Known about the structure:
Layout: H1 6-10, H2 21-24, H3 31-51, E1 56-57, E2 68-69, H4 78-91, H5 94-112, H6 122-137, H7 140-154, E3 157-158, E4 163-164, E5 175-177, H8 185-194, H9 197-213, E6 224-227, E7 233-237, H10 249-266, H11 270-284, H12 308-321, H13 328-349, E8 364-367, E9 372-376, H14 379-394
Antiparallel strand pairs: 1-2, 3-4, 5-6, 6-7, 8-9
Helix pairs in contact: 3-14, 4-5, 4-6, 4-14, 5-6, 5-7, 6-7, 6-8, 8-9, 10-11, 10-12, 12-13, 12-14
The structure holds glycine (GLY).
Amino acid sequence: MVQINKEKINNIAKEEIVNSERYTSTKKMTKEVLEAALTDALLKLDKLWDDVGGNFASHASVDNVYQECKNDSGWNTGFMTGMLWLAYEMTGDKKYLERAESHIPSYHKRIVEKLGVNHHDMGFVFVPSCVAAHKLTGNEQGREAALLAADHLLTRYIVPGDFIQAWGNVGDQLRLIIDCMNNIPLLYWAADTTGDKNYYEKAYNHAITTINNIVRDDGSTFHTYFFNTNGTPDKGVTAQGASDDSCWARGQAWIVSGLPLSYKYTKEGIMVDLFEKVANYFINRLPEDFVPYWDMSFGDGSGEERDSSSAAIAACGFLEMLPHIKDEHLKAVYEGVVDKMMYSLYQNYSTKDTPESNGLLLHAVYSKPGNVGVDECNIWGCYYYMEALARMLKGIKAYW
Ligand code: GLY
C-alpha cells in the first residue's frame, strides 16, 4: 500500500477562518425554505424529463436550457439518473423510481460496448445511476454494469506511480486529476459488494498518491498532476483553472467533497485534518454572496463568472465530513458555510424565477479556458444542489 507522506501533509497550512461570524449568524436554510427549494427543484426535474424525452441531459445548457443527449459519451449522464433516484428517495413517488430504472439498461450497454469510456470518470457515470439502483432496489443489472465499470477503471491504474490515469489512452499521459477523488467511491463500493480487496487497495493507493501530491503548502490544490515514467512526481498543471499556480474553484470543491468519501471507507485520520486545511482555504476565498468565482484567484469586482456548481459540490463535502469534525467552533462554521452557500444558491442562483430553464441551478462554468458551458446550468451542479437538499432535509447520504 502507498505510504502517506505525513511530514508533507502536516506542513500544509491550516488557515484561521476570517470573519467566522458571517457564517455562524442566524440560520437561513430553515425547514420551510428547504421544502420550498425542493418543490422548485422537483418541478424543474419534471420539466427536464419531459424536455429530453426521458433520455439524458447535455452536460451544459444553452441559454439555460439543456438539450437531449444519449448515454454514449462524456462524464456526466449519471447525474440525470442520480437526480431521479434522489427524487424517489425524497418523495417516495414511484414515477421517479420507474424513470430512474428505465435508464439502467443504457448504462449496461454503454459499459459492455465500451461507448465513450476511455477515461477515468466511471464513478461519476455509474455511482449516481447504477450503484444507486443496486443500493436502493437491489437492481442486478445496475450492479453488473457498475462492477464492469469498476473493472474498466482498474485498467487505468498506473504502476509505478500508483494512481489512476485520468485522460487519454493508458500510458499516453501519466497524470491524475483532482476530480478522481469522486470516481474512486465506485471502487470502494465494488470492494464492499464483492469482498475483493483489490478494488479497495487501488482506491486507497490512488487517494494517498493524490493527497501526497496535489495539495499545495497553503491548502490550495493543483487541478492535475503529472508523474514521470519511473513513478516519481513531476509537476502540477491546470486544465480548467486560470493558471497552473492558481486554484480552480471546482477543483478545490472536488477535494472538499472527495476527501470525506475516502475517509468514510478508509478511516485515515489525516484525511480529516487535511480536509480542514483545504476547506478553510476554500471558505476564506468565498465572495460576499458565498458562491465562488470559477477560479479562487478571482474575487468581487473581477467581472469573472461564478461557478455555482462548486458551491453545491462543496456543500455535500461539508455535510459528509461534519460528524467527524472535533473542533466545535470549526464545526459550527462549516455548518454555517453550508447554510449560507445553499441559501444563496436557492435565492440567487436557482431557476425558480427563470421559467424557461429546465435546469435547477444557473451561473455555472464548465471550462472557461475551453469556452464550454460558461455562465450556464451544468448538470452536475444541478445534481449536487439536489444532493445537498436531500442531505439537509432528509439526511439522505446519496450513493458514493
Ligand atoms: N470532472 C470534470 C469537471 O469538473 O469539469
